[in-house]
Specification:
The structure is a single chain. By secondary structure, the chain is an alpha+beta fold. It has two domains: 21-194, Sandwich (Immunoglobulin-like), CATH 2.60.40.1210; 198-376 and 393-429, Four Helix Bundle (Hemerythrin (Met), subunit A), CATH 1.20.120. Helix content is 46%, strand content 23%. It has eight helices and 17 strands. The chain has helices at residues 2-19, 198-218, 220-224, 239-266, 277-301, 311-337, 348-385, 394-429, and strands spanning 21-22, 32-35, 42-43, 45-52, 55-63, 70-77, 85-93, 96-105, 108-111, 120-128, 131-139, 152-161, 176-178, 182-183, 189-194, 233-234, 237-238. The strands form three sheets. Strands 2, 4, 5, 6, 7, 8, 9, 10, 11, 12, 13, 14 and 15 form a 13-stranded mixed sheet that branches. Strands 1-3 form a two-stranded antiparallel sheet. Helix 2 (198-218) packs antiparallel against helix 8 (394-429), helix 6 runs antiparallel to helix 7 (348-385) and helix 7 (348-385) packs antiparallel against helix 8 (394-429). It is elongated. 29% of the residues are buried.
Length: 430
């Protein structure tokens, strides 16, 4: 038992040692410094710089627990957000340290051509005991990035895995930005702040409320619950219709507000020149879904009266547009998990998959129940016509089916609410 306790304590100590390091004494004293160190001087990354004639000497040190090829980089930005930034990246590929110039165009990054090494000298680097270090000299001006280090910039820091060929992949955590602009000719200390993704979280949460919760309830009401509550009214309309309309209004408002919020965040339409096809697809599908969300209620406003010759056309069109919007909306929730802002856990995909399985299973159960109830009602009607006094009345059959369907509806509402709540909580705390 004592041996086991010592072993666990050793593992804990190793983990603590490997998760932070002590802030260098040169930080803010003899070198300019940008970091995320806490009040006790424990850091997960530090960037230092010092003017050296027509150049700036940079050193980056960070905790990186990734195995294999990896990268860390600093970006020079006119604001505190990723987009249109010059980047210098340190890449450990196949045991060799590379330092390259690249550029963020929108939310994507690409190496500068034809020579990403221009203006970079004195490269030294290592990755030992989860500590990734890289130092290099970068000329102040004249680099192919069009960055002039005589000017002032916000500094961005990010890290992630790399390929064996040295190309960088998506960062593992959300990039951090400096709290203020940096003057690379001065010795100063600047703190890192997390980028604000509140609007993105609100966008994602609203879309989950719309397509995982509201629509998943709204679509089953006209399909399976029209015969329910035949003698009851809700605000002058049939109960099923008001519940359906209310669910769809929640979905409509959530989608529109979420759509506006993400436009406010990106301050434009998402860049479509990214190498990741999933990230290209997400905004395109989002626009399509939003258009469909406008089309369906517009059709409903001008719907033909029941019994008229055009009513079947409306019914099929309304169902088709709604179903397509629901499918694309849920698919886009899956794609949104992979967008990287905020950095959502991979297991969220499995929670969404669980919701899809439940929705399909519920609709199958309801379809089988409806077929069984219709057949049973037909059989009992024939028996009644034959004069069998033992058979139950049609009203009794309807009441029994109604009780079961009400129970199933309650279960469905609770389950989809649970899925929705779980996903929203994960998004909010990410």
């Amino acid at each position: 038992m004592k041996t086991l306790s010592c072993f666990l304590l050793l593992l804990l100590c190793v983990d603590i040692v490997g998760s932070t390091f002590v802030k260098p004494t040169t930080c803010g004293t003899t070198k300019g410094c940008y970091h995320d160190c806490d009040t006790s001087g424990q850091c997960s990354f530090v960037v230092t710089w010092k003017e050296n004639g027509a150049n700036i000497d940079f050193e980056i040190k960070a905790v990186n627990t990734l195995t294999g090829d990896q990268w860390m980089a600093i970006g020079f930005s006119h604001d505190d957000k990723m987009g249109d930034d010059a980047v210098t990246e340190c890449v450990m590929a196949s045991g060799t340290m590379l330092v390259k110039n690249s550029f963020n165009t929108g939310r994507s990054n690409s190496r500068l051509t034809p020579d990403p090494d221009t203006g970079i000298t004195n490269i030294v680097g290592s990755h030992i005991n989860n500590i990734f270090q890289c130092s290099y000299t970068l000329q102040k001006s004249g680099s192919p990035q069009n960055v002039d280090l005589n000017s002032h910039y916000f500094i961005l820091f990010g890290s992630g895995p790399a390929s064996s060929a040295g190309s960088i992949q998506q960062h593992t955590d959300n990039p951090l930005a400096s709290s203020s602009i940096a003057d690379f000719q001065k010795i100063e200390e600047i703190f890192a702040v997390e980028q604000d993704f509140d609007l993105v979280k609100a966008h994602g949460s609203l879309m989950v409320i719309a397509w995982i919760f509201a629509v998943s309830i709204g679509v089953i009401l006209p399909r399976f619950y029209k015969p329910m509550w035949p003698k009851s009214k809700l605000f002058g309309e049939k109960v099923w219709f008001q519940l359906h309309r209310g669910s769809m209004m929640v979905a409509f408002l959530s989608t529109i507000i979420g759509f506006i919020l993400i436009f406010v965040f990106v301050e434009d339409f998402s860049e479509l020149n990214q190498s990741d096809n999933l990230k290209v697809a997400h905004p395109i599908i989002g626009v399509i879904v939003t258009v469909l969300v406008f089309i369906n209620p517009t059709m409903a406003i001008f719907r033909p009266h029941p019994g008229t010759k055009n009513r079947p056309i409306f019914n099929w069109a309304h169902w088709g547009v709604g179903t397509l919007a629901h499918i694309l909306g849920v698919v886009n929730c899956f794609l949104g998990v992979r967008m990287g802002k905020p950095n959502l856990p991979e297991y969220l995909i499995y929670i969404l998959a669980g919701f899809v399985v439940w929705q399909l299973l519920f609709e199958l159960i309801m379809q089988l129940h409806q077929c069984f109830a219709n057949k049973k009602g037909s059989d009992e009607y024939e028996l009644q016509q034959s004069g069998d006094v033992q058979v139950r009345t049609t009203q009794q059959v309807v009441e029994q089916n109604s009780n079961l369907k009400m129970f199933l509806l309650g279960v469905h509402v609770v389950v989809v609410f649970g899925f929705c709540l779980a996903v929203v909580i994960i998004i909010v705390i990410a």
